[in-house]
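Inputs:
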Amino acid sequence: MDLTFSERETAFRDELREWFGANDPGPEPLHDERAHYAWRRDFQRRLYEGGWAAPHWPVEYGGRGATLTESAIFFEELGRARAPLPANVLGLLLGGPTLMVWGTEGQRERFLGPILSGEEIWCQGFSEPEAGSDLAALKTRAERDGDGWVVTGQKVWTSGAQYAKWCMLLARTDADVPKHKGLTYFLMDMDQPAVHVRPLRQITGESEFNELFVEGARIADDCVIGGVGNGWKVALTTLMNERAGLAFFLQVRLRRLLDDLIDEAAARGLLDDDVVADRLGALHVKAEILRLTAYRGLTAIEKYGQPGPEGSLTKWMWSETNQQLVQVGAELLGSDALVAGTRWGYELLRARGNTLEGGTTEILKNIVAERVLGLPRAH
Ligand SMILES: Cc1cc2nc3c(=O)[nH]c(=O)nc-3n(C[C@H](O)[C@H](O)[C@H](O)COP(=O)(O)OP(=O)(O)OC[C@H]3O[C@@H](n4cnc5c(N)ncnc54)[C@H](O)[C@@H]3O)c2cc1C
């Protein structure tokens, strides 16, 4: 991939920079989760009004038809402006692109607009207490009932369910066929009495994710995505978009965190220490490798039209590097980083989940081994 920006790309970047210059996201609310979410939602609304909510979406669906390099520029500039990831990130990066591949024209028309504006927030109901890495083992059942479906089961780790209107729900519709074949992908309206959301408290003190109890929820037939029994394939589209789409933002965020750590180390006069300089230098090299690998992932999308398993590599590298970075941060900043409620204390604790969320490192290594390198399956 050629990393020199074309005239069009430079113009895109300048226009975006100007927009961010005029639309300061304001200070990040640090100690109030609801206020933090409202801040992200408000910023998404401003992005939407400026036509920037999802530049990578086709123009016909409200995007800008941005090229892959332009979407990379978008995330770079978002990070540069210290702007938050839009509140409806799961709808914008996962749900929307999944509908573009598998949805009917009617479904796209109904759902894409409110995803963009942030009017309807989406969450992802895949994982269950006994089905995480082995997602196809999930037990949530959907049974036909007249012209719709009745769903019963439990999901867990459902991020943002407390704010969501729609849930990308994977459920079993046929228990008599091999496990991958009996699944269907639904959009479930969260706004019904049969859906109960119970927040789970994380090590950071926040509750980003939840348990989701579904006790006879109704789903209309026109909320089946990609056909009955085809849920596994549709879910893979969502998961590949999750890893590839977030990769860019995450590497930009990591770079920002590293720059801040270098500034903090400099302010404490620590950069003259060879060991410190060496550790920060090693992190710098990893951050650069990550950036270039994220660009390489874009080339794959350009070639094949959809993100491929290479996204797993970036997710794996990012999560391990981020954990090393916050650990170095804690060591350099000492007790300052170990106090609850501080920025570095938060980063240290939040990073523990990085090697689990969006696919554990072990699972990502299996994907890279089998589907990128073509090595034989372990079993
Ligand atoms: C912050 C955060 C947000 C999340 N948000 C969502 C969300 O919005 N929606 C959603 O559906 N899920 C979400 N998840 C869940 C996430 O996808 C799962 O945690 C993940 O898939 C792992 O599943 P599990 O927790 O059941 O662990 P398990 O699958 O039980 O794994 C336990 C351990 O065994 C290892 N292991 C399992 N199978 C293998 C194998 N075949 N080979 C080698 N090692 C293996 C794993 O790597 C792991 O170390 C979130 C998780 C986190 C941490």
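The chain is about 50% helix and 15% strand. Flag for discussion at group meeting.
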